[in-house]
Amino acid sequence: MAISKQSVYEPLTESTAISLALRLGLFPEGTPLTCREIGDGNLNLVFHIVDQNTNKGIIIKQALPYAKVVGESWPLTLKRAVIESNALRTFASYVPEYVPKVYYSDESLAVTVMEDLSHLQIARKGLIEGKTYPLLSQHIGEFLAKTLFYTSDFGLNQQQKKQLAQSFVNPELCKITEDLVFTDPFFDHDTNNFEEELRDDVEALWNDSALKLETAKLKRKFLTEGDALLHGDLHTGSIFASDEETKVIDPEFAFYGPIGFDLGQFFANLLLNALSRNEEEREPLFVHVEKTWKVFRETFSELWENHNVETYAKVPGFLQEVLDKAFTDAIGFAGCEIIRRTIGLAHVADLDGIEEKEKRLNAKRHALRLGKTLILKRESISEIQEIRELFAQTAE
Ligand code: SR1
Ligand code: MG
């Protein structure tokens, strides 16, 4: 679908978003439409447009030329909108059931028009309310195994893979992750944000050279390894869910990176939710971590056996080597994500929303110990069930 004249970027309002939807022919002229800006993320505008007659809607997402969470002082490329719509389309070619349909995208307006998922709930919100989403780990395990396998050198021939990787070079958004996940929280940097009562714990972390060395190794993997097309920001706020359905949204951080990264971010955000719960309510989160890995491993292995285009695929031990590395890296990346969501720039409502101060501070101290342990011990962890043991051991 094309719009008649060349679009010029300007941030949409609720009223110009309706005009755009009509201009695109997504609703017949004269349809009674309502529009609300519902973006609650760190970076973008999100408009929900609904036909009052049918109650059917669409979403128009627009990138702003700066990071909303900080303000206009932090300029940010609009190209991320193209990355996002292309990533959604690429993922849809492998797992259409796990991503919203993209109806239209426009590079100059930095918009992606997509399926309305308002019958689902953002998984972070639901998990904070105590929901468990029984199929979440089955779906995310499959989503990750298929998208990572089919965009890697195991699922694509090397020429196609390199061309795809080229179209997902995403330096500005990767830099956000390099800084906010892998660097700033481990140094006394002005982007950090934590309660003064945590200062001793945070300073201990800044002075821990063993931790810094292991984090440097993980950052290097993120900087240099281009295994497969990643979502790049797979926290529970990037997932819509219900008891039956799961949809992954917001892949504006997509790029070619290490296979374990998305797994690690997802594990971390499940564990951050577990940290916010009372002990007796944590089990569903541990089960999700374990099942995500199990489903990922089984699905990836099945694809490896039946669809691998790499000549060395059948060499005994190669699959195990790839899985072992993804597992170890994922645990380390999870540790970095837990630490940065606790003391870095972008927090999570799971922890910040704990109203009672002592309880919140204790959960955050536990998060810092758990994150550090996952980074330092990742190479000696061989079974996913060990994560729940480390969670318990780092409680006090
Ligand atoms: C300035 S952006 C802060 C965070 O929000 C995004 O969702 C990413 O997680 C990023 O690190
Ligand atoms: Mg996002």
From TrEMBL:
Sequence ranges assigned to domain Aminoglycoside phosphotransferase in this UniProt record: 35-267
Pathway assignment: Amino-acid biosynthesis; L-methionine biosynthesis via salvage pathway; S-methyl-5-thio-alpha-D-ribose 1-phosphate from S-methyl-5'-thioadenosine (hydrolase route): step 2/2
Binding positions for ATP per the UniProt entry: 44, 61, 115-117, 250-252
Protein name stated in the entry: Methylthioribose kinase
Function: Catalyzes the phosphorylation of methylthioribose into methylthioribose-1-phosphate.
Keyword vocabulary terms for this entry: Amino-acid biosynthesis, ATP-binding, Kinase, Methionine biosynthesis, Nucleotide-binding, Transferase
SUPFAM superfamilies the UniProt entry points to: Protein kinase-like (PK-like) (SSF56112)
The organism of origin for this protein: Paranoxybacillus vitaminiphilus
Database matches in InterPro entries: Aminoglycoside_PTrfase, Kinase-like_dom_sf, Methylthioribose_kinase
Assembly notes: Homodimer.
